[in-house]
Amino acid sequence: MYSSRKSCPVNKTMRNRALIVCVENFYPETGLCRRSGVKRDSQRLHRILSKLGFTVDIRMDIEAAEIHQAFKEASEQSVKECFVGIISSHGEEGIVFGSDGSAVRLAQIYSCFSGKAMEDKSKVFFVQV
Fold it and tell me: Which residues form the Caspase family p20 domain (predicted)?
């Protein structure tokens, strides 16, 4: 059978990626209490996502600007089919806090993923506050 479709080269090294951002410890002056169990949760998530074929990056106890920057950088790298973003920190409706107590709007994070690199790719976010 003849097909007129041209075959596209497949990048076999490209993988699905996940970024896990967890804040367990906050600066003392923030008044935000420690979130015990976060490290264990992130390790479990890393193990599960790795078994599913994801390349996983974990960022622990980073400031608000670093959270935004981590997701911005992740959004600029293409993936095979899917990106998973996980954020675990204190927060309120529509925001999460960095270790410095500053807020990051979730809408800002999500908007990073509307660029060319993530076009037509699945993007899944889990937020635990």
Answer: 14-129
Residue whose C-alpha is closest to residue 104's, from 125, 77, 83: 125
Task: List pLDDT tens digits, range 17-41.
Answer: 999 999 999 999 999 999 999 999 9
State the alpha helices, DSSP H only, in 14-126: 38-51, 64-75, 106-111
CA distances from 65 to 78, 98, 104 (A): 22, 8, 8
- Cβ proximity of 79 and 16 under 8 Å: yes
Q: How buried is 22 (Cβ within 10 angstroms: 0-12 exposed, 13-18 middle, 19+ buried)? A: buried
The model's pTM is 0.88
Domain 17-127 belongs to what topology? Rossmann fold (3.40.50)
- In the chain, domain spans: 17-127
Residue 36 has a CB neighbour count (10 Å cut-off) of 9
